[in-house]
Design goal:
single chain; alpha/beta; Rossmann fold; 2 domains; 6-stranded parallel beta sheet; 9 helices; about 45% helix; globular
Length: about 220
């Protein structure tokens, strides 16, 4: 019997292609050796995932420091110049102001079970985001609370602890196989893969195209 719902934040609840992301991408291309937006995204997201994978226990750092490390990498390796404080400020606006997908609020409104948000972002930014969006999850499990970033299973274990449920009593909805589906499945949490832009098949995993397909 399902007693709680876990859901990913970035890419699942909020859009990744949004105005502040495009502003930051444009600035990177204007002030670095990188002129192809796809190459910029590949390098930046590669460093994001690399740094997040190292963030655990005593090696954990909050998202502002992770961001500064990525900017330093781009400065040292990609010729990035310009106002680093400005770039950091725009980046932080993404965490707060990225808009919700249209199916998110209706999902929260009709779901009778408690819904907990799991994110690698810090709690202060998530709380501000939900306040602006007038969204009230049952709980927020941030990476700083678990001192780990997804796909590390510690953040899922912290979510189970906070929600007070067993792994088999919850589902986790996310848009990443690596960061959402695989760690959830390892713990015995039922994963639901959200593939908004393409038909996808994952053996043994329910795949949806919209949160409108779910009823709890």
């Amino acid at each position: 019997m399902i007693k709680a719902v876990f859901i990913d934040y970035t890419g699942t609840m909020v859009m990744e292609d949004e105005p502040y992301t495009r502003e930051l991408l444009k600035y990177f291309m204007m002030h670095s050796d990188l002129k192809d937006p796809q190459k910029v995204l590949k390098i930046v997201w590669g460093k994001v995932k690399e740094i997040e994978a190292e963030c655990f226990g005593d090696a954990f750092v909050k998202i502002d420091e992770r961001t500064d490390r990525i900017l330093k990498y781009l400065t040292d390796n990609c010729g990035l110049k310009g106002d680093l404080a400005y770039m950091h400020e725009v980046w932080s606006k993404i965490w707060v102001h990225a808009p919700l997908f249209e199916d998110v609020k209706p999902f929260f409104e009709r779901t009778s079970l408690p819904v907990y948000v799991l994110s690698n972002d810090d709690l202060c930014y998530l709380e501000e985001s939900f306040s602006l969006k007038e969204l009230k999850p049952a709980g927020i499990i941030s990476s700083e609370m678990a001192r780990a970033c997804k796909p590390n299973r510690a953040i899922f274990e912290k979510a189970l602890e906070i929600a007070g449920v067993k792994a088999e009593e919850t589902v986790h909805i996310g848009d990443s196989v690596t960061s959402d589906v695989e760690p959830a499945r390892e713990l015995g949490i039922t994963p639901i893969y959200l593939s908004r832009n393409a038909d996808t098949v994952i053996d043994g995993v329910r795949v949806i195209r919209s949160l409108d397909e779910l009823r709890f």
